Amino acid sequence: MVTIKTLEQKNRPWVIAHRGYRGAYPENTISAFKAAIEVKADMIELDVCLTKDRVPVVIHDTTLERTTDGEGLVSGYTLSELKELDAGSWFSSEFKGESIPTLEETLDQTKGRITVNIEIKPESFESSEPTDAVEIQICRLVEKFGMVESVLISSFKHSFFSRIQSFYRKYKRSNPLRIAPIQGYFESDDAVIELCQREKAYSYHPNESFLTVSLIDELKACGFRVFPYTINDEERMTNLIQMGVHGIISDEPEKLRKVLKKF
Ligand code: G3P
Ligand code: MG
To answer: Per-residue pLDDT for 214 more than 90?
Structure first.
């Protein structure tokens, strides 16, 4: 079983394959995840939202047009309707017939082989707090697959994290899942540290353009890890590694592995 603890022992920045091996495979598909495992990425990142019949599926956009041959909202279709769609041909005819994976299928295929960063899309947030809310279903699936030690849960919508805490509180347990706030805009170092402390974060996932050495140093001093997104350029990868990040979220895991060999 590959766990986050085993990665920590490697003492080098982690290769986090964004939406799988997105540079060479259709994003967020089983092919892209298997390819990331084959090129020895340390972790895959994937995006989760709910179908009309409330099944967690792995797809980035709220709509189907960009990455499938369907039209309209993902949340407007049941799983069986979504399973009819082709999620591979838009990328290349070689991947015709690839389908939108459920989170369950994805965990089943990755369990024991790689660690997983599950990003919960903000659009799935429900203020009514239903018992089958996306974040609750994710906790249940991770528990079912015995993957608590191999999973990192991230989101731009930080309110999901307190929901996860409350879910575990109901069972008189403290939250065993590692949490990672994502941020796509600039915040002061103090505000970022405050956010990570409030959310009891494991790591902080900023847009790479807002990352500074002082912020990395402060996060490290407070015991947080830093995984910026999304870096595909060799020079910038090198630069961020020199700045001291703990890992990089990239569409190009093979390129990133090569860059890491220089260190
Ligand atoms: O999780 C990092 C990154 O994936 C966040 O942005 O839009 O690619 O999901 P996005
Ligand atoms: Mg993402």
So the answer is: yes
